[in-house]
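Is magnesium ion placement plausible here? Inputs below.
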Amino acid sequence: MSQQTSPKLGCDIDGVLYPYIATLCRYAETISGKSLCPHPPFYDLVKSWGITMDEQQQAHLKLFSSAPHHHAGAPLVGAPETLWALAEAGVEITYVSRRATYTDSIGGDFKNAVGMTGEWLHEWMPPGEMVFVDDKREFRGHADLMLEDNPAEAAALREAGRTVWLLKQTYNLEAPGPHYEWGGLELASFLLGERTETDRLVGAGR
Ligand SMILES: [Mg+2]
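Reply from A.M.:
I modeled the complex. Tokens:
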């Protein structure tokens, strides 16, 4: 990897940084009246939880209806420390997400979702451009690596020529890897090569 330009990471938000399913689970339980597992076996929550599409969408809209609801979700353990260490070592991060476009597509407020996302990222994560798309393949920016949790999106991105790692989740264990867990040193090694000082910084966040 070239040392002349900054390494670039394209980072998904939900299921990679934000605890989307654990947070959504609380609203989906209230709406459906069912007790739901926060560690679903499939990416498809309708299938995993035995709820209706309408119940899933209502839960999503509830989550994105107000900043306090949304901000109750603290980041996945190890994610902020790792991203801050990478950023301080010179990695440029672009946050690539479907969350605002999806919210808009089911009757929610695109701008609100963008605003909440910006506030939440500002609270926890290093600065970086936010890109909201319908399909991750619409992202045209350079990324040496993209980090994703959705196995179908990972496969589509790879088919489009991207290098993609999966953030390890119960619903993507069967999908082709690599699978990454926050705190692991592989991300820094891949993006930064021999910059061992960063390995030390990232390792300190484990
Ligand atoms: Mg995701």
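Short version: The first strand starts at residue 8 and ends at 11.
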